[in-house]
Structure prediction request, 493 residues.
Amino acid sequence: MPEDGTAVPWELPGCVVSVSDPSEPDVEPSSCSGAILCRSPGLVLCPAAVLVPFLQPDVTAWPHGDALPPSALRPGLHISVLQAAPPPDAVQQHVACPLALLRCDAFARALPGTLSTAEESTEALPWFCWLRVPGLDTPGGTWTPWAPAATLRKGAALLACGTPFGALCPELFLNALSTGVLSNATGPQRALLLTDARCLPGTQGGPVLALAPTSSPPRLVAVVAATAGCQGGQGLGLALLCSLHALLQSARSVLPELSSLPPPLPLPEAHGSPTLRCAALVESGSSWGSGTLVAPRLLLTCRHVLQLGAPLRVTLRHSTTRDTILQARLVFATAETSPFDVAVLELQDSVPSFQPPDLATTFQPGEAVLVLGFGALGRACGPSVTGGVLSAVVGTPPVMLQSTCAVHAGSSGGPLLSAHDGCLLGIVASNARDNTAGTTYPHLNFCIPISLLRTPLARYRCSGNPAAFAPLNAASEGARAAWRLQQRPPSKL
Prediction:
C-alpha cells in the first residue's frame, strides 16, 4: 500500500463474508458482501442478517435491543472473509471473529413504514455485524478514506462495490462495480439513502463510494443495506443504503477499535442543483404526483394526477427547513381521448427566484438523463433523482421519449432532464407494467417530449388563452399508435 494510505486499484474496500456451522455440514453457508473499514487493525462491517440464522435459541428479543455480544451466536461458527488479492491468487481467505452485532438506531428510525424491501429478514435490516479480521492487518495500514453522506447532494455520482450471490463464485463476481446516483436521503444526518446503482442479491453489505476531488481516492459513504426497495407492492429499482457515519456513531461507545478512526475527508461542496427546483409536488384531493415548473407561475403535470373538481396544491420541497406551498388553478387538461396525458396549472403566486430550465430542441438516443419525481420517499424528503439514458425517441417529429431511469408511482408529471446541461427534455407520463404478471418495470418508462409543448406554452404566455393547448387533443395517427398500449386497455402493458 502506498505511504499515503490510498488504495491501489485492486484494493477496493469490498469483500465477502461467509458463515457456516461445522456441526451442520449439509447446510449451505450464509454469505453476503462486506466493507473493509481498516487494515490496522483489520475491521470488516457486514449486515447482521448473514448471522441471524446462527443466533442462540434463547436469543428471542434481539430485534428490540441495541447490541448483541458474540456469545449470542452459536459456539464454533466458521466465519471467513474473502478479499481480492494480486494475481495469480485472485482471492484470499481470512478467519474473522465477531466483535458485536449492533443496531443502527438512526437508520432504524429513518425506515419509513410504507417502504418495504425484498429481503427475507426486514427486522434485521438496521442491524450490522462488526468483525475483527487479523489476516487483513497490514504494517502501516490505515482506515479506508470516508466521508459523511450528509455532505452529498442529490444526483451525486456513487459507485457501489459488491459481490453478487455472495460466496457462490467470488472468482467471477468479487467486487463487481455499479454506478448510480444518490436518489434521496432521509433520517438523522441522512442515515438512510437510496441509490439507483444496480445492486444484485448478495451485494448487501458492500461499500458505496462517492467520487472525490481530482487525484484523490473515492470516499466510503455508506454500505448496501437492502438490494431492492418496494413501495405499495411495486419494485422501486432502488437499493437502500445505510450511512457509514450513522454506523460509526452507533458503534463508537461499544467498540474500542474505533478509537483510532480518523476524521472524515472532504467531498466537493453540496450546492443545491438549480435543476432540482423545477420539480414540484402536486396534490389534488386524494390524488398526488409530480409537476414540472416551466415558468415562475406555470407548471406541467399529467392529467391522471388530478382529481376532478378537487382543489390543487403545489408544494416546493427543496429545503430541509421549510416548504413553499402554493395554490393553483387548472388552465387546461387534455381530453381522455388524447394520447398525451397532460395538464397545465397556473400558480396563485410566482415561485421566488425561479430560473426556468431551458427547453431542449434535440433528442439524442443514448444521452445521459435524469428524472426528478416525488415517488420513493419524495413526499417526505423532496424529489428523488434517478439517472439513466434516453433509450428511444419515437416518431418524427418525436411523440414519445423512453428512458432507463427508475420511475415510480408518484413520479408522473416530473421532469426528464439532460444530465449534461439540465435542459428539459419532457415530462414523465408512466412506467411500464405487465398487467398479466402484475409486475412493474421502473426502468422502462415513457415521457412526453417538451417539443410538443413548446409552441402551446409560448402562445399561452402571450395570449393567456387556454385554447393554445387545444392541438394536444388533435394528435396525429402516429402519436396515437405510439401511445396505444396506454390508450387501449386491457393490453399486456
